[in-house]
């Protein structure tokens, strides 16, 4: 059980598409698939099947779908190169480190609540976001289901501490609004920036004093 009692506020972040540049990550993945001889239409079909069937992404899952199209890729070799590529670049959005650090210095506590498969998500955080990224957070969780039950439990355990939830998936935002209305939500779209999020958190944090 994580103790948030000394926090000025709790900021719960989604990971993909909010802190982590998922578009850049996917483009790198597709380039790697092409290197191994997978044609663009097959990559598109694999991507569409993952979305349509709501499959949680993993290297093994992607290669299983591609194999059905007639292209076999050696899993071990591909996975090693996949994670080497991941660790060779920084996929963290511009200003993310600075904003996380700045809010933390002002007394806000950070929490990642990410949607996906546990092992791939943790590897993305540890390999693709630069050294020390995970130190910003008091707690990191990965879920394959709705997020509002975790937010509800967090808010009840930390009654009186302002809690914020930032996500780029409207379904998650709407469920939190419906079931945990005391949590301040920010629907993160391409019209917003991390600076906008920080300004909102600071403004609401001052009101809560």
Structure description:
- The protein is α/β, with parallel strands linked by helices.
- It has helices at residues 22-35, 40-52, 59-68, 75-87, 96-105, 118-127, 148-157, 170-179, 194-207, and strands at 9-13, 108-115, 137-143, 162-167, 184-187.
- Strands 3-2-1-4-5 form a 5-stranded parallel β-sheet, with helices on both faces.
- Helix 1 (22-35) crosses helix 4 (75-87) and helix 7 packs across helix 8 (170-179).
- It is elongated and about 60 Å long.
- The protein starts with 8 loop residues before the first strand and ends with a helix.
- 30% of the residues are buried.
- The mean pLDDT is 93.
For the terminal residues, how far apart are their CA atoms? Answer: 25 Å
SSE order: EHHHHHEHEHEHEH
Number of discrete helical segments: 9
Determine the fraction of residues in helical runs and give it as a percent range: 40-55%
Instruction: Classify the secondary structure makeup into a structural class.
Output: alpha/beta
State which percent range the strand residues make up: 5-15%
The tally of beta strands, per DSSP, is: 5
User: What gross morphology would you assign?
Assistant: elongated
Describe the strand arrangement of the main beta sheet, using strand numbers: 3-2-1-4-5
Largest sheet composition: 5 strands, parallel
Average pLDDT metric = 93
Quaternary structure classification: single chain
Spans of at least 5 consecutive residues whose pLDDT stays below 50 are none
Q: Measured on Cα atoms, how large is the radius of gyration?
A: 18 Å
């Amino acid at each position: 059980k994580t103790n948030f009692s000394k926090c000025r506020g709790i900021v719960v972040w989604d990971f993909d598409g909010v802190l982590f540049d998922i578009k850049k990550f996917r483009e790198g993945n597709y380039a790697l698939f092409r290197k191994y001889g997978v044609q663009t239409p097959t990559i598109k079909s694999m991507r569409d099947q993952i979305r349509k069937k709501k499959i949680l992404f993993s290297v093994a899952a992607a290669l299983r779908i591609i194999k059905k199209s007639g292209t076999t890729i050696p899993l071990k070799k591909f996975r090693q190169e996949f994670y080497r590529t991941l660790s060779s670049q920084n996929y963290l959005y511009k200003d993310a480190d600075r904003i996380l650090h700045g809010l933390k210095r002002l007394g806000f506590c950070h929490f990642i609540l990410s949607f996906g498969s546990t092992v791939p998500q943790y590897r993305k955080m540890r390999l693709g976001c630069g050294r020390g990224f995970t130190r910003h957070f008091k707690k990191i969780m990965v879920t394959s289901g709705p997020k509002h039950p975790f937010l509800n439990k967090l808010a009840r355990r930390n009654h009186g501490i302002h809690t914020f939830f930032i996500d780029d998936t409207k379904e998650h935002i709407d469920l939190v609004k419906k079931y945990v209305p005391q949590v301040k939500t920010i629907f993160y779209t391409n019209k917003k920036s991390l600076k906008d999020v920080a300004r909102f958190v600071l403004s609401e944090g001052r009101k809560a004093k």
